[in-house]
Amino acid sequence: MKKTRIKVSKKRITFMLLPHGGRRSYQITLSYSFIFALFLIWSALTGVGLYYMSQRIENAQLKDANKKLKQKITHFSKKLENALDLVRETQDLNIRLKGLLALQSKKKVIEYSAMGGPSELKDFKISELLKPEFDNSEELFDANFRELLTSAWQTKTSFKEISEYLNYKRNLARYTPAIWPVYGRITSGFGLRINPVTHRPEFHHAFDIANLKGTPIRATADGKVIFAGWGGKLGKTVVIAHNLGYTTYYGHCDEVFVKPGEKVIRGQIIASVGMTGRTTGPHVHYEIHRYGKPLNPKFFMSGGF
Ligand SMILES: [Zn+2]
User: Is 289 exposed, middle or buried (0-12, 13-18, 19+ CB in 10 A)?
Assistant: First the structure.
């Protein structure tokens, strides 16, 4: 076992090492100023060590926060890209739908020009903005958002237009005469003929469809009854006004089941076949007018009841 004795002098301190077993002793004498200098060096080294350690911890925390932030930005940018893709797909769908509708109508009903997607940014990926070389990423983000909002607004306007067009087509279908008022034999068509009663030539603006007395007569499109009563030579007559300028006439009825002002739908029974007025047999005299001009009913009788 070794023992250490410390001798203190006024300005110096001596450390003695006394080994057991009569071996030679060692001693080292140090000045206070030297010890103080050692203490200062030790303190400085410890301080620097602690500072670097804290820096390393701070760096690690910053790195971790940075990583999480980057993950979040990547996540949000992916979501935004998905939203943009969806808007672009909706636009494509919109354009295809319009093309389809225009084809079906065989008319240039839709004149809306095909809208492009986000123009110069069409193939732009927002995730590209995360790359450090993008200095103007904020401007590009703003531009993308503007494109997104503009595209969404255009698409909404376009869909509204399609909806209005479809509504117009539906109305056109509902208010255009499209069925036979009565199934039967056509005894007189649209055009010049010899009147079977007067035996004089005349222009017949109607179809005469013969059937048994009492056979139901149906409205050929949705509309409103504007006349139901005695119509002179046509006998008991029903007149229905439809939208889009159409008016239909049903003459020589036996019985009339509707009143003026009543709304009717296509296929609804409005009267029965008779031979009132000037006629040689039971039939319905069926006329179609559009804006007052008589039209040939054969073009409006493709549908069934
Ligand atoms: Zn007739």
Answer: middle
